[in-house]
Amino acid sequence: MKLLIVLIIYSTSAFAGPLSPNEANFVKSVWDHVRHNETDMFCSILNQFPDIQAKFPQFEGKDLNSIRNTTEFITQAVRTFTFFSNIIDLSDNPVNIPTITILLKNLGVSHRRYGVTTAQMNEFNYGIVSYLNVSFNTNPNNSWNDVVAAAWTNALDNIFGSVFQNL
Ligand code: HEM
C-alpha cells in the first residue's frame, strides 16, 4: 500500500498513471524474483543494446561472454541494480520521497556527464522489461501478463521520468 502511495505521488508529476494496490504488489514481487541477478540483467541489456555497452570505455567493443565474469563487469552490474533495488525498497515509505528524488536527480546529472541520452535510458527501460518478462516466466508459479506488464510500465515511467528531467 505504501509503495502505491509513493508511486501515485510520482504519477502526479504526469510521469505515469497511478498504480493499483495489486500493481504495486506485482512490482515488488517481480523484483524480489530477480534482484540478485545483477550480472545476468546487465549482460542481457548490453547484449540487446551495444550502444549502451559502447558508453563504458572499459567494455566497449569487447565480447560480452569474455567480460561478464570480470570484477569490473560484476561491479558495474551490482552498482546499477543495487541502485534500482534501493529505489524500489525506499518506495515503501512516503517519508523517503525527498531521498528518492535526490537519488534520481543525481543519477540524471552523473549520466548526463557520461553522455547518456534519453533514447539510451529508454532502451535500458525496455531491456529491463524484456528481461523480467523472460525471467519471471521461468518459474512455473509465475506469469508475466498484461497486468504485471502495465504495473512495471507505470513504475519505470515514474523512475525514468525523474532521471530524464536531469539528463
Ligand atoms: C542507459 C544506459 C546507461 C549507460 C550508458 C550508463 C553508463 C554509465 C557509466 C559510463 C558509468 C560510469 C562507470 C565507471 O565509473 O566506470 C555509470 C555509472 C553508474 N550507473 Fe549507469 N548507465 C546507464 C544506465 C543506468 C541506470 C538505468 C542506472 C540505475 C538504475 C545506472 C546506475 C549507475 C550507477 C549507480 C553508477 C555509479 C554512480 C554514478 O556514476 O552515478 N546506470 N553508468
UniProtKB/TrEMBL annotation:
Pfam families: Globin
GO MF term list: heme binding; metal ion binding; oxygen binding; oxygen carrier activity
Keywords annotated in UniProt: Heme, Iron, Metal-binding, Oxygen transport, Signal, Transport
Signal peptide limits: 1-16
Family annotation (PROSITE patterns): GLOBIN (PS01033)
InterPro entries on file: Erythrocruorin (IPR002336), Globin (IPR000971), Globin-like_sf (IPR009050), Globin/Proto (IPR012292), Mb-like_M (IPR044399)
Boundaries of every Globin domain copy: 18-167
A single GO cellular-component term on record: hemoglobin complex
Family: Belongs to the globin family.
Entry protein name: Globin domain-containing protein
UniProt organism field: Chironomus riparius
